[in-house]
Amino acid sequence: GGIVMELICKNVGMVNNADIKIDGITVIAGENDTGKSTISKLVYTLIKSSSKADVLRLYRLYKSKEIKDTLNDMIVSTRQKGEDFFIPNMISEEIIKEFLDIYLDNTYKRTEKQDIIEKIFISYFNREEIIISKSFFKDLKKQVIDLLEEDLDEINICKYKLINYIESVFKGDICNKYTEQETNIVLKESSKELLNIIINDNQLEEYHLNGDLALQDATLIESPIILHMFELIYNAQTILEKQDDFSFMFDRPYVSIHMKDLISKLRQKVQLDFIDESYRPVSKIIKGNMSYNSVENAFFFSKNSKDFNIMNTASGIKAFGILQMLLERGFLSKKNILILDEPEVNIHPKWQIEYARLLVELVEHYGFKILLTSHSPYFIEAIKIYGDKSSIKEDINFYLAEKQERNKTVNIVSVTNSLQKVFDQLTEPLETLEIDDIGDLND
């Protein structure tokens, strides 16, 4: 329920056309290699990059980089002119942070900010070991103040985020390889267009963000096996994280933003405000609880008063436990969307049905949205059956990723009222196997 989102996209990955309604639960069914994961990652990328929650942190990062780049450019230019010049080190992070603190503090008047910045400059550049000309000092001070006085442009920062999310989540390769037509992505809420993007040859050409999205956060789960690598992922860096000038010396690996985002959320403290002690559906299914122990830096599954390291538990336990921890930490709410990429892969068919029932129940109880992909007829039928019995029946939508043989692309079409198309496609291999088996017996 609540605000309904609509995603309209053309030529994204191998997806030719998709018009998807995202409400309570949205299911995209289809065989492997039909672009389902592309849509999952796209929705995650759009929601996360459009959120303004981390705009201030990123603004500080961008301004810091601009100031450093300005100083470096001036140093190169001055040396090329053959002028006497010596600065033993770059402007430190602490000084740049001080600059930004001053300009983000609205208690200072504009002239007061400039005076304080000038005093910091004089204190820094008046040291005996620094040799610069008065013109260099004056020009640098002016350029830094000009950079600091630029308004905080939230739209440009969101645009920058989108570029980096595409690079991280899609490795920069988001356009359809089977056509030279542009990639167009539109996001609507209750029929109002909030986001419109045009990409050509994997380069962002147009970006229009026309308001704040109702959904402020997204969580993407590709596999519960991520818990086996949580420490490596948490200690790795993402493309949007601020890097030390000498980070190359420590050889920190890069990971996709969505992987670190999930691990970071699971390591958060439990938010008691979000826990309804009388409503513990996950614990009832797995007959225990999953938790993170910050002292031992490990995830544990507790059952019958015994703690088991998560490395020693079944994939199904991990899959259910991740939901439990996200719920307890406040990441499943009306302002969030949970994105599940083929969740049935690591779960026994019996638990697939339980998992489907749980998802319907959680959405009904908490009102958040779920986008999931699947190629399991068991799982999809379970979503349908439990959904039909729930109060969110009208908020569940099914789609099928259909391959277009003529051009190797995919169209994602609505099958909410014709779900048999999904079962026909997904059970075809079994029927083929049965025919082959009968044929072998008759030979």
Mean pLDDT across the residues is 88
Helix content: 40-55%
Strand order of the largest sheet: 6-5-4-1-2-14-13-3-12-11-7
Structural class: alpha/beta
The SSE string, one letter per element, is: EEEHHHHHHEEEEHHHEEEHEHEHEEH
- Report the β-strand fraction as a percent range: 15-25%
Tell me about the largest β-sheet. Answer: 11 strands, mixed
Assembly type of the chains comes to single chain
Q: With helices defined by DSSP (H or I, 4 residues minimum), what is the helix count?
A: 13
Radius of gyration: 26 Å
Structure, explained:
The chain has 13 helices and 14 strands. Helix 2 crosses helix 3. 43% of the residues lie in helices and 21% in strands. The strands form 2 sheets. Strands 6-5-4-1-2-14-13-3-12-11-7 form an 11-stranded mixed sheet, sandwiched between helices.
In short:
By secondary structure, the protein is an alpha/beta fold. It has helices spanning 36-50, 55-80, 93-103, 110-125, 134-149, 154-169, 230-235, 257-266, 281-286, 315-328, 349-366, 377-388, 420-442, and strands spanning 5-12, 15-22, 25-29, 183-189, 192-200, 203-209, 217-221, 289-293, 298-303, 306-309, 336-341, 369-374, 396-404, 409-414. 43% of the residues lie in helices and 21% in strands.
